[in-house]
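Sample A.
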Amino acid sequence: MLLNAPLPAQDVADVTRRGRRGPGVPIIPSRVRQARIERGLSLADLAGTEVSRAFIHQLEQGLARPSLQILELIAQRTGRSVSYFTSGEVQPAAGPDLSSDLVATSKRLERLASTLELTESNREAFRMVVNSLRHGARLIAAVTQERKAGKAERSPGTQHELTS
């Protein structure tokens, strides 16, 4: 059989498409991976049931473009805005921060616990650690937000001390 030989007409007729594919939305591919990793999501977590892990990988490699609907889904799952993926502008949470690291670590621990044979008490201990990490992430995010708001309220010539 020749590799470049055309398919017989009956084989061509059997090929069906799921739908008309548009050109997709131009994105910055590296931002998809960055947002996914910072949120502690696997390819499967980000893909969900709407698209395949392979498609998410293709997005991260710049080999595919998502529809607006899928881009909005990715933005929602990663906690980013759609513009984070489409423009050169870096959003305030552009780099990894402690809060994101804690959430990512909690998700890694959950995945680890799901692969181990644990007693009920050890499983509960894992849950407590995961919940503590997530609580810490929320606390850090809240304190960071307060500090940003406090800096915005201060007048340029005034010095304030932050107390613990």
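Sample B, a different protein:
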Amino acid sequence: MPNTHLVILKKCYLDKILDGSKPVELRLLKAACAPYGAVAIGDKLFLKQSSGPVCAVARVSSFQEYNNLTPAKIKQLKSIYNHLVFGTDEYWEMKADSKYAIFIWMKDVKNIKPVMIDKKDWRAWAVLNSKNDFGLLGSADVID
């Protein structure tokens, strides 16, 4: 059964996903935490603007994970994928000491009626379940 995820995005990246110019979401991580190791093809993504509402959904069409990264390997990933993820030079420099990466290809991206949720933690990615769903999994306002 597919998982459902809450993905927090800066507005500039969310806008690019919604207009179709950014088909891939990247997370560079120092530890092997979600979404690394937690994403599968067919998973549902709720897309939330940072400090804003959940305003879109998407499905995972493909993903690629990397581990044991070094600054040199991250530089290589930038040269291969940056045209799909739109990372700034500052972003890549800030993440140069990451050990894990996951590139997530999205399909079926759709706007939904904006939903404000009560999320107070700093996680930029959460795997949702019945005990931790921010009211999204059972909401009649959210399309499937």
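Observation for Sample B: The CA atoms of residues 13 and 82 lie 13 Å apart.
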